[in-house]
Batch of 4 targets.
Target 1
Amino acid sequence: MKLAANLSLLYPGLPLAQRMAAAARDGFAGAEILFPYDLAPRELATMLRDHRLELVLVNTPVGSAGEKGLACLPGREDDFSHALQRALQVCEATECRMIHVMAGVPPAGAVPSACRATLISNLRKAAKRAQQAGVTLTLEALNRTDLPGYFYYRPDQVADIINTVGHDAVGLQFDLYHTQREGLDLGTTLDDVLPLVRHVQFANPQGRHEPDPASPAVAGALRKLANHGYAGWVGCEYIPKGDTSANLVWRHAYHAILDNQDTP
């Protein structure tokens, strides 16, 4: 399991190109960029090549009216289709193979069943387009404290949507931080959704700062993923307490855990 630097949060205060340079110097081979839509896709691709970084994840655009995503919003199907197309264009230029589809926050008075039907319909159409492009779509449960009202906040809710969509191009983005913020047990929650996991992220549940891989819950989840055969990326989506580079010492514990992944 390889670590990817989330360049939307790490190395704050630096322009994107300098964040890329810093991540490369710090030994990261992959990068997440949540909303890379201020740059032309080809320009972004050139920057990534220059710094020898692989773009491993982007989010769909969230919507021009301040939405937190569009995929579950009835009446906004065309807007979601356009947002997906922008993300696919980034993937085509950069060879990124993962898009987190932002479901959104249903507006006041929205009927939950209508939002669910809209999301499933949008995902079935989007999955065909993604598969043709060699891209996997992911859905992520976001905790209610950080993103109140988001369409789902538990991984099992996301798993239900994925299973209903029933397409190989749609999988689960499992974020240890959001799971712990909801007070859920990492081990049992992961057990329930493990076959669906396509991407992983983590941060410390206290303040969303540097992760603590040595904590028993996190260490157990990482071993569970590795022993199950997950060999994808683990996104470092956290807010640095101070200097990002100076505080990467937690990676020693991360690698030590994976080097002994068969240890119970």
Note: The beta strands are 2-6, 30-32, 54-59, 98-100, 136-140, 170-175, 197-202, 233-236.
Target 2
Amino acid sequence: MEKNTELYSYAKALAEVKLIRWHEMPDFSIYSDQLLQIVREELSFLSLNDEILVTKSMVNNYVKWGMMPKPIKKKYDKLHIVYVLVITLLKPILPIMKIKEGIQLQILIEGHENAYNSFCSALEESLREVFIPIIEQRKTYDFKERNITADKLAISSITLALSSKLLTEKIIDTKMSKLAKSNQSEGDSHDK
């Protein structure tokens, strides 16, 4: 199997993702710029081609749509950070109202802190499961059976979907880039 160094580097980075946990977040109120900075830093592994993942307008819309609590005197706390992180991660996979319902469901099952920490663990596990075979340069890609409790099924399913989407996009991007370079090289050799 030919080694794709760009895909390998990407897989290595994603297999090592470790999201900030509830207890690691600020215990004080922050302004929207600080909230955006935390979210952008935490999700920098998602940024492809300097894509803007979240803006003030998006956060304002999430509040307006009832997806997260309103800020208090234009200040945000760790609960807001958690909502924006999870929404930003899931919006490429699910419709926004399904994300809202999913968050509400998981909070009812586990409470805010446990629901968020469970989501982080599930995402990290899914990323490792999807990207480690790339790092190990396996010729076949066997999905292992996962033992998931019923209360974690939704979180596990959505994080696996996100991880698979990221892998698919990167494979397409790297192969398209390789084809474009190959076609350009062929065109250059015909010009001589």
Note: The chain has one domain: 5-183.
Target 3
Amino acid sequence: MSGIPDRLQAVENAIVAACREAGRAPGSVQLLAVSKTFGPDAVLAAVEAGQHAFGENYVQEGVDKIAALAGRGLAWHFIGPIQSNKTRPIAGHFDWVHTVEREKIAVRLSEQRPEALGPLNVCVQVNISGEASKSGAAPGEVAALAEAVTRLPNLRLRGLMAIPEPVEDFAAQRAAFAAVREIFETLRGRFGPDFDTLSMGMSADLRAAILEGATIVRVGSAIFGSRTYDK
């Protein structure tokens, strides 16, 4: 755990540098620390270094960590694929969901969200690269799905999320993120001031994502180190 503060600082420095390059305020980009497969102790080390927003891909693992770290004022984001039989614990424990790709899932999240928690913040996931192996709505389906989310009483539509196909070419990285941003900007006036979030960019393409307007970047191993296992 001793390396987490230094790695977290390095990622924050990279975000600041990319924001300056883009002519943006550093505070316009939120770092989401992806803590999947790392235990509460690792999360706590990041918390003590100043990090308060965490992303989880696996439902039960995330729920267990949320319980273990309750009362610390943390924000928990679900960023993994959503199975229909997992919507209830997601709706009951998380503050954000980035991966809504079907109206059926959105309806279940709304129906199962405890009213005492307030609306669940939701991003529609866009399959911008058209990969068969990737989750997300096709670009042409995003507007209708986003509209459906706005009609659900216990959800708050916040924006779009995307995981483009990994490429090393920087121009190609920017092009994929620019395509997501164009969809976002097309919809922004339609959905009002709450529609303010572009969740895109990870360790390998963080700079390109910020240059193209990301407001949340999702970074895991660059903060917590190499994962010893995956599910």
Note: The mean pLDDT is 95.
Target 4
Amino acid sequence: MRGVVYREVDEDGWTLLERHAAPVRDHFSTIGVQVVIDDVEGYAYLRNADEDDTEEPLPRLVRRRSLTYNVSLLLVLLRKRLVEFEASGGEGKLVLTRDQVVDILRLFLPDSSNEARVIDQVDTTIRKAAELGFLRQLPRQPGHWEVRRILKAYVDAQTLGDFAGKLTEYAGAHPGGDDG
């Protein structure tokens, strides 16, 4: 109940979950929790069930996390990169280097003359995204990060559309800026 189950990481747990999906869903639904299983992407997680206006609301059992601006921004930008990766026919996993993540975020961070501070800020943001399970550092490849597909469940198409609209507004309000 504390995180995401990945098919590739926990094959035995995944097989058990697939075999007993209906009773597991029934069990959790009685306490107001929905089991989400994405067979295509190979992950499963829990989320609070949608509240029904006719029933007395159940207490929140799945913890909500408030994210900093930088982490939220990184997640949306990574989700956008994941969409581009899949649209270009990218097979396998999307892997980015730390420098690529720095470049992705740099466009949206305030200008600073202190490059070391910007890099520290990005490193902190990367670590937080990894703690939340959206990035995974590749073993034996320091500085290489896999973008976990669970991000698709967290940052949906609506959020991406809203973000694109805000970027368009921002570009209109700040003419002559970078084309990003």
Note: The radius of gyration is 19 Å.
